[in-house]
Amino acid sequence: MFTLRSLLALALATTGCLLAPAAMAQAFPSKTVTIIVPAPPGGTADITARMLQEPLSKALGQPVVIENRGGGNGAVGTQALLNAPPDGHTLLMQFSGFHVMTPQLVKVPFDPLKDLQAVANVMSAPQVLALRSSLPFKTARELVDYARKNPGKLNYSSAGNGSVQHIAAELFKSLTDTRIVHIPYRGTGPMVTDLLASQVDFTLTTAPPLVGHIQAGKLRALLVASDQRLPALPDVPTAKEAGIPNFEVQSWFTLYTHGKAPRAAVDRVAAEVQKIVSTPEFQKKAGEQGAQVTFMGPEAMTRYAQAEYERWGKVIKVQGIKAD
User: Which CDD domains match (predicted)?
Assistant: First the structure.
């Protein structure tokens, strides 16, 4: 039999349970928020995270710090997220290549699609083929013609074995019937540094790390792997215009967190990111970098990532792309 005291206690306990999610939402964030970039500084993932850093800190009322954890083509940084407390205070600026391409070519110690929780997609950017300015090629067709006549003489750099740059270049080689040597690096930043120093011949990577160097004449862009030209590089033809149809490679950059993080924390960050990327200032800056804002919330991004995994799985299989 329930006494008045026991009924009151039960009522209070039930009320506490109902209020718990709201209390959790109000409590987040209660400390510094860390955005892990699973690559060295200088790449598009790093640029995207730093574009978010200050406005997200103001919106959340807590410091937001960037932590570059390169290595393993994204595996080291991703594992650092999974090793952190699953409270939503640690985020990962994930890039699409590692999330949906790399696991289909090399073994990683986790499942990005299952172990990570999507928060918000921030930006997308197509791959740009850029070569050292000392090479004589003025068009993609000139590069292809030389590569066919001189198999193995040209090389290209990537951010790592199984990276999106690697897959994009292998797709390019397949579509153009060329033999070009792959030189993997430990991230986009070091790769671009060596390209500028003429240590490698060319690369395919997203526009943000390249735009300034192309505009300054330090690198020469031959094509954009997209169906539209980039406003930041209006004179650079699309792959189709350059004579290489069906060569479209778009990368996306998404905030993820631990798969067990509270949904209240995920929703709070997603809501704030949506406000930030909707501002004219953010969109203008993205465009100047050769990217565009493509916001998606948790559910939409989860579905999109699964579809991208399946799409690139088919491309990798049909084209016979393999890890080195």
Answer: PBP2_Bug_TTT
